[in-house]
């Protein structure tokens, strides 16, 4: 079956073999007589699913033993509160604001701590990244928050900042929701990484938190028990009933990632796909991407047509060709093509072919 | 295909036609070319799914227009914090503790307000319900919290308390996770109802909150934005990315409930199923259920064998006959049969047949 190419920024396309397996196992998982949705989270069967998912994720991302892997609920916006509830100790927190997502994190944190703007790229319309050497980091901050891929603005850190090299001892917190598992993570530079699953690793409703052991156990008294990392970790993500089916799906994605060659191969593909589209845009003289070339996202590619009146015809033609969900975020406008792990190179090629045709007939 | 009968307390059995439809639509929802998991929550397709789910739920439960329906994340344990964060105003809250779940709600609330025990059935081992006329309700409480069906102890309110008749003006909050949609709700007595989906209405990871309009807008400053009922309501459950696939599944369950005859028919079936099993237990002279007959749960039926050494043989024989997940909660011991909406009468019959056989061969 030929499926359309789905460029949604999230919830986003999943690998077809994952969906096929989920459909085949829907009424009976591995001869258990149960759908995964129908299993007690405390039973042997779901225990196996959770253990395997965690083991595969640890292998894929090379997560060191002194980090806990937590499967939580509430998404990235939930974590904007849950991280400061757990890590801020009510003190100073430094934020680097490079787009919509880190901006929301900065704003939400003020409920729980004393946040400050260490750097911002607002003046550039979030089309660049402030160099770490220019960040105004405060001594004694509980942590430094960075969004390493801004889904809406299409800006990505090509390497993680090295806070120690900047003279800062605070742990780095990264919101890597929209590019997790598309490139390796240098854990020596990270204290906590969080990611909503609905872009690169599964369905909406699962939030992944990977946190260094020494950062557990410092939650504020107003932190809900269900969102206290220490409690979640001590109960192996089963203090409250976890989103079992979402974890199962994420686990199927992890297995698919391993079969396809792991994160190194995902990174190679991401570079190939995104380069194809960016090179076409830049060479077209018609479509425009405004992000600085040094920090263009491999995952989320916003672009503009020369005239906004062409947007609807562009989208309608795309749909006809089976190119779905290309509309840009309302705060940015234009188009956005999200090229996550599940997007085959042929999807990027089909997009470029259509863009070329459309420009030729409307240019 | 004959499936086993699954007596899990939650996540729990789902109607087979729902699972079959989900499997059939996994790769392509209604010709969209997308799995529901792959749809942007802001798109037209998911908007239709959400609207239909809410409309069907409102119809099934006869939810009045001055109540909002919210699809949230975090489960019942999450709501134990989220309710007082939203409704307590930091003031007095009265709790009626009738088992494990209301006990946890009472304990968690102390982070946010001044909770007090209005009544407790701990002295009876949570096998009875304290009559509302004996509750010590405080004037000026922000709300009164009751768990209307205790999943672990198998205790159910056969009617909702009428707080006004007790001279109390505070809104009633009900945790109805484990019996929602198995009986009507008298909304004139309720301010807020919440329910984790994973028992009667869908997969784990969706939490339903139905709240009266006048109770919105009073969240404490430390309430995370993603869990502020006012914000969730104003954004039609899409402030953060909702658990889209879980909402879709819940929607399929709602459609199934309507086809089967709605909540009135579910109540009739629940009475029939549970009466069959309770009558057998009481008449057996061998199995024991310790809950007072006036408040036995139609959904969760804990029972004990005369000797705990028979538990493992009982469970092993049950599994052989396709009767799954009958082990009791560790805090209570023994067995527990959960007979939710998706359990056919034949499942209750098969359980009783097996129990009769087992008693005859081990009694």
Automatic annotation (TrEMBL), chains A, B:
Q: Where in the cell is it found?
A: Cytoplasm
Q: What class of enzyme is it?
A: transferase
User: Which cofactor is essential here?
Assistant: pyridoxal 5'-phosphate
Q: Where does L-glutamate bind?
A: 42
Q: Name one GO cellular component term.
A: cytoplasm
Which SUPFAM superfamilies does the entry mention? PLP-dependent transferases (SSF53383)
Give me the residues that bind pyridoxal 5'-phosphate, please: 101, 151, 175, 198, 240-241
Q: Which transformation does this protein catalyse, written as a reaction? A: O-phospho-L-serine + 2-oxoglutarate = 3-phosphooxypyruvate + L-glutamate; 4-(phosphooxy)-L-threonine + 2-oxoglutarate = (R)-3-hydroxy-2-oxo-4-phosphooxybutanoate + L-glutamate
Top-level lineage group:
Bacteria
What the entry lists under Pfam families is as follows: Aminotran_5 (PF00266)
Name any Gene Ontology BP term.
Answer: L-serine biosynthetic process
Listed GO molecular functions? O-phospho-L-serine:2-oxoglutarate aminotransferase activity; pyridoxal phosphate binding
Quote the record's cofactor note.
Binds 1 pyridoxal phosphate per subunit.
Pinpoint the Aminotransferase class V domain residues: 5-346
Q: Which pathway does it operate in?
A: Cofactor biosynthesis; pyridoxine 5'-phosphate biosynthesis; pyridoxine 5'-phosphate from D-erythrose 4-phosphate: step 3/5; Amino-acid biosynthesis; L-serine biosynthesis; L-serine from 3-phospho-D-glycerate: step 2/3
Assembly, per entry: Homodimer.
What function is annotated for this protein? Catalyzes the reversible conversion of 3-phosphohydroxypyruvate to phosphoserine and of 3-hydroxy-2-oxo-4-phosphonooxybutanoate to phosphohydroxythreonine.
Q: Under which name does UniProt file this protein?
A: Phosphoserine aminotransferase
The organism of origin for this protein = Caldimonas caldifontis
